[in-house]
Design goal:
The protein is α+β, with helices and mostly antiparallel strands. Helices cover 30% and strands 30% of the residues.
Length: 228
């Protein structure tokens, strides 16, 4: 009871109140200014770079855009309207000299579609490769470097995926000045291979917006790729 009486203020006694000291005011002000500056920097970056917050697929690959169809090998895909689709040279189907020199058919390649934007060609390719032994993609993937074009001797399988409804493998291909990415799927006696450069960390592409856009276009057409 004595303790209760000691802790209970007497009538007329003023109870001490919590006061905000100048140090607390400065701390609160500092926190407020810090959050304001962070928000201002983020907002400035967002509005200064609106394109970086949009998906290339939603802006460049739409169902109403052109569709490349190859009836001979049974595949098709959607591509941006400012892209031209060319085919690599074959003995029976010549192409313009500059294209013929840039992307000829290599050993084991049956057909190749090349994306071209302006004067840039060959950044993205869709290739049909011969698979005479009818290997599954799991069987074919470790042999990719043996059948690939010269110089592609450092090929690494990076994972499993799907190309349309087919099981697929993804690859990283080390080249002299950059890395390429690829995805491949097998059906019957052919293998479908989509290949494009990896732009992340590559100074050759980081400084070239058109190359980055072409690489993004190739990655974005993969979900539209259909095999029939």
């Amino acid at each position: 009871m004595d303790e209760l009486r000691e802790s209970t203020p007497e009538i007329g006694e003023v109870t001490p109140q919590h006061t905000v000291t100048p140090k607390k005011l400065l701390l609160l002000l500092f926190i407020f200014v810090l959050f304001f500056l962070i928000g201002f920097v983020l907002a400035t970056h967002y509005f200064a770079n609106p394109a970086s917050h949009k998906s290339p697929q939603t802006t460049r690959l739409l169902p109403t855009q052109p569709t490349y169809v190859n009836k001979q090998y049974g595949y098709k895909f959607i591509y941006p309207s400012d892209i031209t689709i060319l085919e690599a040279a074959t003995p029976n189907k010549p192409t313009p000299t500059n294209i013929n020199l840039f992307v000829p058919l290599e050993k084991g390649e049956l057909q190749k579609a090349i994306l071209r934007q302006g004067d840039m060609t060959g950044v993205c390719t869709i290739t049909v490769l011969a698979n005479p032994k009818r290997l599954t993609i799991a069987q074919w993937a470790p042999m990719y470097h043996l059948n690939a074009a010269s110089g592609d001797n450092l090929v690494k399988i990076t994972g499993d995926a799907k190309l349309d409804t087919l099981p697929a493998k993804t690859f990283s291909i080390f080249l002299f000045d950059h890395n390429d990415k690829a995805i491949a799927a097998a059906r019957d006696n052919v293998v479908y291979l989509i290949r494009y450069p990896e732009t992340v960390g590559n100074p050759n592409f980081d400084s070239d917006p058109q190359s980055k856009e072409m690489s993004a276009d190739c990655k974005n057409l993969i979900p539209t790729f259909k095999i029939f």
